[in-house]
Structure formats: C-alpha cells, structure tokens
C-alpha cells in the first residue's frame, strides 16, 4: 500500500450536489461510502472540509462586512459541514472524532495534535473543523497545516475536475492535463491549485498533493491502490 495516513480535503461546494445552497444528502452519503472503502483498507483517514456551500468570508467582505468577522462565520460553516459528514460516516459504522480549532466543547473536541494522532492510530476517522481557527487563512491552509502536523503521507484534494490542467478545462476544450507536476512548475506557470500559503507549506515540507475528481465513484479507492488518478504535485 502506497499510503498509510492521508488527509482528504473536500470543498464545501461539492456537498451541494445539484443544489444551489446547503447540503445534498445523496452526495454526503456517496462521500461517506467512498471514505469507508479506503478506511476498510486499513488507511488512517483525516478530513478537512470547506464551508463555501453555506458561507464564505470573502463574500462577507464584498457585502461591506469586516473580513475578520466574515472569516469566523466561514469557520462556523465548516463545522456544520464537518458535523454532517461525521453523522454520515457514523451512520455506516465508522468511529469518528471531530476536532475543532475553535473551542465548541458541546459538539467537538479541541484540536490537540497528539490527541489527533492517537485517534488515527486507534482507527478513528478524524475530521478537523473550523479551519486554522484564525481569520485570513483558507481551509486549504488548514488542510496543509493539519496534514503536516499529523505526518500525513499525502493531501488528497477532491474536486469536480480530474486533475490539474494548463488552462481551465471547464472553459477551454483544448486544455491539457498534467499527470504530475512540480511545485516550482506550478509557480512558474501561474496555475491555481491551492492558495499560496497552503501551497508553500506543502512545498517546504515536501508534502505531495494529489488533485483528483472526488465525484466519480471509486476514484478515491483507485488512487489509494496506486492507480494514476488525477495529478500529483511534488518537489
């Protein structure tokens, strides 16, 4: 098996499915089954999920709200998604723990690195909520930071696109996909994979990122099995 411990980064928008807002229960259920498939292969799984299907800090700023205030609201949105995913995973028999960067003791444990690692070692799926707990940082940054803290082997960034292209494949039919690409090439080509803070964290800590299509059933398991799914970014 190529990976022992992975951090799965999911976007909040992906939870909408075909809806315009909120959470699509069918999509949530599908994701939970995909995660169980790799968990059953004895992979230690940690998850970070965004909150864009509910609220984004940047949209608050556009509406005249203070960015800091908006970012904290966005962190709460990630907790709603984290709780929904936790419920979906537990409904199919997985043992989970939700760890929050902002203290919410009635619904989650506070994030403590050693505790997170211990939960993973005991076979629990760990969900990290509330981003980094700080404004001005995205959930991509939270995913990179947590992955490094728990010594994950890789970040699996689940998107609706099947990898990294030279131009946006949803806008340009001539787009060319990369099977693998270096961090330096991403910089030089100006490609958008993660925000720069998250990206730099991964580069400096030699943490590979695999960008893949999470919405195609079976992709996650194939990736874990070593099939060439998506695009791998490495030093």
List the helices and strands and how they pair.
Layout (H helix, E strand, L loop, with lengths): L4 E6 L14 H15 L4 E6 L7 H6 L4 H25 L4 E5 L8 E2 L2 H9 L3 E5 L9 H11 L4 E6 L4 E2 L11 E2 L1 E3 H7 L6 H9 L4 E5 L5 H6 L6 E4 L1
Parallel strand pairs: 1-2, 1-6, 2-5, 3-4, 3-5, 6-10, 9-11
Antiparallel strand pairs: 7-8, 10-11
Helix pairs in contact: 1-3, 5-7
Task: Supply database-style keywords.
235 residues, alpha/beta, 11 strands, globular, nine-stranded mixed beta sheet, Carbamate kinase
What would a concise description of this structure say?
The strands form two sheets. This protein has a nine-stranded mixed sheet, with helices on both faces. The chain has a two-stranded antiparallel ribbon with strand order 7-8.
Please provide a written account of the structure.
The protein has about 240 residues and is α/β, with parallel strands linked by helices. The chain has a domain of about 160 residues: Carbamate kinase, CATH 3.40.1160.10. The protein contains eight helices and eleven strands. The strands form two sheets. Strands 4-3-5-2-1-6-10-11-9 form a nine-stranded mixed sheet, with helices on both faces. The chain has a two-stranded antiparallel ribbon with strand order 7-8. Helix 1 crosses helix 3 and helix 5 runs parallel beside helix 7. The longest helix has 25 residues. The chain is globular, with a radius of gyration of 17 Å. The mean pLDDT is about 95.
